[in-house]
Structures are given as structure tokens and as C-alpha cells.
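Lab manual, section 2.4: Encoding a predicted structure.

Procedure: take the sequence of the chain (952 residues), apply the prediction step described in section 2.3, and record the output as C-alpha cells. A sample record is shown.
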Amino acid sequence: MAETILMEVFSLHTPPTVRIVHSGHACNVEEERYTERVYTIREAETLELTCLVTGHPRPQMRWTKTAGSASDRFQDSTVFNETLRIANIQRHQGGRYYCKAENGLGSPAIKSIRVDVYYLDDPIVTVHQSIGEAKEQFYYERTVFLRCMANSNPPVRYSWRRGREVLSQGSDKGVEIYEPFFTQGETKILKLKNLRPQDYANYSCIASVRNVCGIPDKNVLFRLTNRTASPSIKLQVEDPIVVNPGHTVTLVCVTVGGEPTPTLTWVSNAETLPAKAVLNGGTLTLPAVVTEDAGIYSCVANNNVGNPAKKSATVIVRALKKGRFWITPDPYHNDDNIQIGREVKISCQVEATPPEELVFNWLKNGRPLRSSERMVITQTDPDVSAGTTNLDIIDLKFTDFGTYTCIASLKGGGIPEISIDVNISSTTVPPLFFSFLVPPNLTVPRGKSPLVTQEGDTVELQCLVSGKPKPIILWSRADKEAPMPDGSMQTESYDGILRIVNVSREMTGSYRCQTSQYNGFNVKPREALVELIVQYPPTVEEVFTEIRQGLMRSFTMSCRVLRAHPSRVLRYEWRLGSRLLNAGQFDLQDETEFNVRSLSREGYGEYTCDIINEAGAGRCTFLVTGRAYPPEFFYDTYSPLWQNRPRVYGYKLQWTQMNPGAVDRIVAYRLGIRQTGQQRWWEQEIPVEGTIQTGELITYNLTELIRPEAYEVRLTPITRFGEGDSAVRMIKYSTPINPHLREFHCSFEEEPICMFTQEKTDDFDWTRHSAATRDTKYTPNTGPSSDRSGSKQGYYMYIETSRPRVEGDQARLLTPIFNVAPKNPYGPAGHAYCFSFYYHMYGKHIGTLNTFLRQKGQTSSESPVWSLSGNQGDRWRQAKVGIHPTASFQMVFEGIRGPGIEGDIAIDDVTLEEGECRDPPPNNLRSLAPPTADHIWRLCVTLPLALFSQRR
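Recorded output:
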């Protein structure tokens, strides 16, 4: 009978078994080898895995994860709930998830499933030229690479279009397409060999994962023109910048080149800019700087063409801190004693920024102390031991007793000096000619370890120290290699107390207090340990979630505990505004849910869930709204609509609606439009019939737009809830074929020098240089000391007249070729343009600078339209000359070498504008161009100026 009962008891106890079932938004679940499965899900969907457990007694189970990011919460916590639910899953949360159950019988039961998160990011097109060719400007007979890249899972497939034409291998002899051979992260490269006129076009890169998991294709548009160029910038600051605390530092970064227009960003070596930093375009302002603001600040310009441009400046904030001293007994005797008649060294060390400005002074009993044969004052080499001064007292006498003061200051001023007092007295050196050191002793007061506090409080860790002289205490982390709360690896304390303000959970652990090796006498350090325990309220997820829902729909909100100390959670409270909805106690679960069965208008608002323990509360916030998502503009409508009226144009506005089914049906759009720079919006409603589908393209024609003004368009969806989120875009007028170039300007800041070319039949070439790099060793009394703007880093063009140049040698520099507008049969002949530039002609051997107008088809000999000879002084001057070409033309700069080497001629900031010159500078320039017959007619008629490429 006993055996039968015993067998029945055993039959009630069974080992655990585990089975994983899935729900949520799976794209596909497929079996894998060894009975493990792959669960595929789109990014931002909801992952739900349920672990079905059997066994008696009831097994304890937990979820864990491997093959994920180190920052993933499953790395440092476990989930004791049967259903694992991750809303809005992200790509880094993919990996293998394990369900483990155990009840003490047999081996634990473990099952796993691999979660594969699918996604497709927007593609990015970057543009590069072949190595060895011009790296900035993009023009004819250059090979260009368009590189397309999009992050995805599964691997992405790329395709290219030029306008509406699909490009494929072999479809165009001037195009090569590089196919990827591997998977994730590969790119597809479009190679344009020896650019042709038809290659200047709009290129679209389409990235596709072949509709896996319903992920739609994504595309990006890049417009390649003959002005496409990589970014270039200039920093208008001196480097380094040395300032006192409290001053304001302004760093100005300007774009000097790049097409499309580069975007400017500022970064620092501290990874993030200070919170008080003010950004205004390319200007970075640091108000009231402190020591922590010091570092390297870099301006980065990027337009996806070539490599980003980056220039940096160093900000140095003057500071004096952490003064300390130590006494070294006679170094020639092996004891730690100070004896009358022997040598004593008093060392004083101060941390200073910048260290080269540090100055020391010594006082004895308040009076200045000078270096002598018996009192030797030295300062160590800053490269060996920064900020240290020594006072060597040779043959110590009773008359040397007194107070010695070390004073540190900075040459730049504005920083309070630091002074350190050291007493040499009979207590240090008694009449017995020597004294033994009183060794330091460290103890932790009763009740001060372990020390329990709550996150956000101020706490004081304390060690009692004794000894003569009393040493400074160094605090550090004892349980891990981690910095102290102030960011340093060690923190000094003169009273043995470490005060931590706003203590955080990461500060939990053991702290070591230790006597300083060099403060007072150099003896073996003593140390003690203090244990700190920081309690903190629960950490929850999601901290903030926006939920968009239509009326009469149901949804569930979930708030989950990640970690807390103490880990026992007391209760939870759900509220809508200030109204309590539900409250309860946590048992073994780590999650609480609240379900809204049918959303009413009163149900819109902010829901909060507070999860509370002894240290405080963690809060999940859910903003429930019926606002429609913003519309997404379709940007592939390139050109305005022509209207047969001279000053009016129209535009086809196209858009799709983001997540149209997320809320109530959109019944209308509110369209707002205003001219750029104006305050007033003109608004109207666009009614919507029927239900908008995902991806449906909606079109509305904008008319009566004044040419060539730009407009700001705002589109807002409207539902029963009211207005949704708005989307705003700019509509700019541009002609359908080629934009008119109204002005040409070149400051020679970039290597291609605006497509200027050197004449091949002259005697020598013009040279691009800056004052910062030009060698004036042999010709110091000639040439400019900066560019036209006054910057030593700025560039200009000049002729170098040193050997082997001889008198009369000529150097010619040619502008690009410009086209003039078609001739008006009812107007005067010719077109008016103003050609201007800055010149620098300084030196006793200056020759001649000529400018010529060279027109297409011109056969007669050239005559200069402007000419100047001789020394004009060490300054930049402006020249303006009116020209009236009748055909395509270019301007020619001719520099002629004078009788000696001090004859460098420079030019900068060359400009060509439509119209007559205004206010020409008073100098001896001469214009040989014929005067216009009807100036008023030219001012009223638009004269397009197009810039074409010129082969070197």
C-alpha cells in the first residue's frame, strides 16, 4: 500500500515542457533545421511570442535573448511573463529568443525561435569623380560615378532611371552599371563615362526588396548639372581661440562652393555640442564659456557630392585648478626624515590651461623670495612635468622656519591666482635635529558603510584621516574601471568627504578613499572602502507613445517594468488626465495593460501609468489622438505648368496620405499658400470624396502664381477629430529647359578655379595661391599679404615674376565661354554686361595688366578693354568695365612681366553681371567698348546668360 501511494505521488510531479507559439504581425514563419524556426516581421510592427509551459509543480519560466545589440534590454534583465510582446520592434531587436522553464525536476526545458526584422531605409545617392581628375567641378569629358546605397533586410536590389528612361547594362554606351555580388550593405554604382550633354539630367535610384513583407520600393532623385560640385567651406576665425571663462565665443563657417547647396553642421570632439550652444546657419555661438566647453569644434559641409568638407578650430578656456604641494627630505640619505643641516625640497604643482602661460612666484612670511645659493627656485620644463615649481633649501637652519607660499597665475590675466601655504616649523623639525613622520590613518565612521540613498539625492561618503602633515584624500571607484561623478578617474578631497549631488543608479558600488602619495610627505598610501547603494524608481517602457485612433475603435496600452531597486514593485495606477481609471498590485508579472473598448471623444487625451516602489514612480505616457498623419508631397513634378500669359505660371501639386486608415476618414484638406517672405496665408479647403487608399496619388493644380516668385505651400488633412498634422514645401519657379545664369562670380577658393583655363600659346601660367602658403622669402616687397577679403587663408591668382621669367613675358588666363541672349530684331545691337574684378599691383618692377574681350568668330587683332601699368601700392583696388558683345564671348586676363622680380600682379573676385556698370571706381581705367544706343531698353528686357563648359 505504501509503495502504491508513493507511486501516485510521483505521478503528480512532471518535468517541464515548453512550446513557443507566435501571434502579432508575422510576415512568415518557416521551419529551420533542428526544429528551430524563423519568425519574420516588418520593422515597427508588434512582436508577440507566447511560451506554453506544462509541468507540475508549476514551472518558473523566463525569456532571454542572444545575438542582439549589447544595449538590448534582454542583455541585463529577464522577462517572467508567458507572452513576450514588443510593440514597434526595431531592427536591432532581431535575434534568437529563448524561453526557459524549470521546476526542479530533470533538466530545464528550453525552446528558441529566431526573429528576423525586415526593413528598407530611404536610399542615398552620392557622387564622385574618377581619381586623378578634377575633384570639384563636374563638366565635359570627366568620368562620374553615382553611388546608391540603402540599408535593408533582406538584401536590396537597385535600378536606375535617367528622367523616365530605365537604364540597364548595354542600353547606353556611355553608361556602365556595377552589380552587387554580396548581400547586406552592397551598393549599385552608375558610371557615366566621359560626360556628354545628355548626361546632365535627373537620375533616380530605386531600391527594392521585391515587396517582401509588403515593403514598398523607395527611390531618391539626384540632379546632375555642369555646376555640380563638392562642398567647400571657410572658417572665419583664428585658431586656436584662447578666452577667459564667462566670455562668448563665436565660430563662423561659410560655404564658398558646392552644388547642390551643402548643409552645414557643427560637431565637437565631445561628440555632442554643449546644451547652451546656439546655431544660426553656419554660425556657432558658445555663450558664457566654462572649462568644460574647451575642445575642438568642427564645421562639416555635405551635399552628397565627393567627400564632406571639414574645418576645425580649437577653443581653449583659461583655467587654474588643483594646486598641491609635497616635501621631499634629503634625497641623498635613505630615510624619510627632515634634519637640520640637510637639504629640503618644497614642490608646488598647479594644473593650468594653457600651461605655457603659467607663472610662479614664491613668498616667505608674506615677502617675495628670490632665488639664491641656499634658496634655489626652479621651474620644471612644461614638456616634462607641466606646472611644477621647486624651492630647494640647502643646509636647513632654524632661521628658515616660517610660512612659504607658492603663487600661481596666468600671463593672460583675468583668472584668479592660486596660492598654497607650506609651514616649516619646530613641529616639523624639532630641536632634536630630526623628526619621525606621523603616518596617516584612515577609518570609515560607524554607520557610513554601507550607505543607502535614493536616486536624485545628495549623499556624502566619509573617511576619517589623521597624521602629520594631514594628507589629501583621493577617491576612486573600487569595484569597476569607471570615472567618478565629476568625470575624472580620481577626485581629491581635503576633508575626507566625497559629496555627490543628484546621485544616479549608475553610481551604486564600492568607493576607495586613499591618502595622496604627494601631499605632505611621500609615504605608503593608506586606504579604506565605502559601499554606496542607490535606490531608484522603476524604469519603464514605453516612456512615451503616441496612439492615433478613430472613434468607436478599440486599442490596448501596455506599461512594462525594465528594472527597479528595490525590485519589489508596490502598485500601478492608470489615469486619464487627473482621473483615476484603474489601480492594483503587481504580483509576479512585470507588465500592466489598460484596454479601451470603444473610443469616444471624451477618451482622447493623455493617459499615464505610474508604476511605484519605495523610491518613487516610473511613468508610461500615452497620447491618444485622432489627428491624421501629415500628407507626403510627391517631389517628382519637376517643372511649372506653362500658362500662355507672360507673368503667371502654375504648378501641379501632388501628394499621398501617410497611414490614411489609422484614424477617421479624411473629408477635406486645408490648403494654405503664401509668397516667400510674406506673412499672410491664403487658405481654401479641398474636399475629398470617398476613402483615400494607402499610396494613392492626389493631384491639385495651383494657378495664378506670379513668375518668378517662390511660394510656401501648407497642406493639412481634416477628419471628424479636426485638423491633423500639416506638411509644408516650397514651390520655386524655374524654366523647363535651362535656368538663366544672371551673374558669374569667382573668388578662386576651389582648385578648378571656376573653369578658368590657361592660354596655351603664352609664355607662362597664372598661379593660384594664398598668403598663408605663398613663399615671399626672395620677393618680400611685392604681391598681396591676403586675399581681397583680408583672409590669409583665402586664395587669389597671380603671376610669379621670379626667374626664369624675363621682361616682356606674357601669361594669359581665360574665363569660361558665355552665351548672350538671342538678338531682339526691334532693339539695339549688342548686349550690355558689367565685367569687374579686384587687382593688386604692388612692387617696383610691376609690368602691365590687360583685359581683353574675345568673341566667337572674331578675326581682327585683340585690343584691351582695360589696361594698367606700374606700381599701384600695397592694396586691393576694384576695376569695372562695360562690355557689349554680339556673340558668344570670354574675357582674357594678360599679365606682362616688368623689368625685375618685384613685379607680382594678382587678381581676385571676378564678376560678370547683366546690365551697365554702376558707379565705376575712379581710376585710370579705359573702356574701349562702344556705348549703348538705348540703355532703358536693356534694363527692361531679360538677357539670359548661360555658362558653358570649357576644356582645358
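Check your result against the sample. The longest strand covers residues 527-541.
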